[in-house]
Prior knowledge:
Layout: E1 31-35, E2 44-48, E3 55-63, E4 69-75, E5 78-85, E6 88-91, E7 99-105, E8 111-116, E9 124-128, E10 133-135, E11 144-149, E12 155-159, E13 169-174, E14 177-183, E15 185-189, E16 195-198, E17 206-211, E18 217-222, E19 226-230, E20 236-240, E21 250-256, E22 259-264, E23 273-280, E24 286-292, E25 298-303, E26 306-309, E27 321-329, E28 335-341, E29 348-354, E30 358-359, E31 369-376, E32 383-389, E33 392-396, E34 404-407, E35 411-417, E36 423-430, E37 438-445, E38 450-451, E39 455-459
Antiparallel strand pairs: 1-39, 2-29, 3-4, 4-5, 5-6, 7-8, 8-9, 9-10, 11-12, 12-13, 13-14, 15-16, 16-17, 17-18, 19-20, 20-21, 21-22, 23-24, 24-25, 25-26, 27-28, 28-29, 30-31, 31-36, 32-35, 32-37, 33-34, 37-38, 37-39
Amino acid sequence: MQDLHIQNKIWLDHSVSLSLKLAAAICSLAGLATPVMAQGDAHYRVVPLPLPNGAVAMSGVGLNNSNEVSGGVNINRQVRPYHYADGQLMILDEVEGIQTTAMAINDNGHITGWMYEWGVIWPQAYLWDGSANHWLIDPDDSYTYAQGLNDRDQVVGFYYPPGGHPNGNAFVVNDGSYYDLGSGQATDISENGIIVGQTNRYNGDTAVWTPDGNSGWTLTVLDAKLGRAINRSGTMFVGAGPFVSYFDTPVLWTDHNGQWTRTDIGSWDPSIETALPNDINDLGQVVGEYQSFENEDRGWIYENGQVTWLNDLLAPAYSSWKVVRAQRINESGVILADAIEEPNRVSQPVLLIPEQLTILGPRGTGAGSTNELIAVSATPGSRIYFAIGFAQGSRALPGCPGVNIGLSAPRVVGSSRANAEQEARVSVFVPGAAAGRTIYLQAIDPAHCEVSNVLRYTLH
C-alpha cells in the first residue's frame, strides 16, 4: 500500500472536491483521540480474543484506541502478560516473573503492570515499550504496583516507600522518576496528567491529583469512595459513591471550571447489589460491572443519562453470548469485556464492536513515521475512503440523499477495500511538522451510503 508523503509544512489542496479523489497531503494522525459524534444506539458484534495453546484462563484489562488489548494469560500455572492486535496474541517474554499482570496499554502500544518472581515476596512495576521491557524501580526498592498509563508513558499506581502509609502511597513515574503523591493509590492518569485514585486503599476518599505547573501535583479530596478511571481529556472520571452499605454504587465526576461535580449513575439498591464503573471515554460513555445476590453478573453501559445492559445491545447473531463484565471503552465506542458463550460457563475476553462503520484511532509511532488508519465493521469488498478535516461540518455525500459527511472541507487521504474480517486499512506518512495540529477523521463508504463516527485528534 503506497504511503502519502508531504514536505515539512502542512498544506492541503483546496481544489480537492467531494468526488473522493485522493488528496495530495496529510497531516499527523497520532495523538489525543476525542470523539465528536456519537453513533446512536448501536448493536455490537462479539469478537473473542484467541486463547493460546496450553492456556487455561485469560483476562483482558487494557484497551487502546486502535483495538489493541493487554492482559494476562495462565499457562502452566503461571500468569504471563500479553499484547493483542488484529487477531494475533503475543506473550511478552521480555517481561520476566512467574505471576505477571498487564494493567494498561496506551496508543503507542506500550504496556504497564507488575510482576512477581520466585523467592521474592514483593512485586515490581514495569513498562514494556513495544519491543523491550523497562523495570520501574523506585529509589527505595519497595513494592511497586503499576495500574495506569497515558500516551506520555507516565505510569501511576501505589507502592510502599519507607515512612509511607501502612496501606501504601500513590505514585506517578514521570520520565523514569518516581513522584510520591502521598497516602493512597493512583488508578488512572489522563493525557494532561490529571490523576485519580483514593486517599487510602482500604477506607479512603476519592482523590484527584492535578499538575501544579512546577513538576508536582496538588491533591483534591472528594466525598466519595474512590476514583476508578479518568477520560483522556481529563474532564470526567468515574468511581464509587460514599460507603452506604456493603456494596458499591457508581458515580460520575465532571469538571466545571475547576470544580468537580458528582452525578450518580443509575439507580441501585446497595443492600443487595453492587455496580462498579471501570472506564469512561470523552463522549461520557461509561462501562462497568454488576453483581447481586439475586441476579447473574452483567456488564453495562451508561450514556445519555441511562444505564443499559450490554446483553440487550448484542446483535441477534450473538445471542448465545452473555456479557458478565465491561472493562474498558475506547474513543470509537469499542468495548473490552468478559463474556461467556453458552453453554460454556467460563468467561473470556472479547471485543464488542459497533456494527456500523467505525473509524479507530491511528496506529503507529506518531510524527515522523508511517501510521495506519483502520476502519472496522465495513462491508467486505466495499471501497472505504479515509477523510480528514480541520473542523466539524455537514457536507452531503454525493449520490446519497440525507447522508452527510461530518467534516468541514473534507480531504480524502487514502482508500482500500474491506477484507473478509470487515476491516479496511491505509498507511500514511506523518511529518514531524504536524505536531500540535488538530484534525478530524472519518471513514466513508459511498457505495452503501454509510459514514463512520468522527474522531478529533490533538496532535503531538
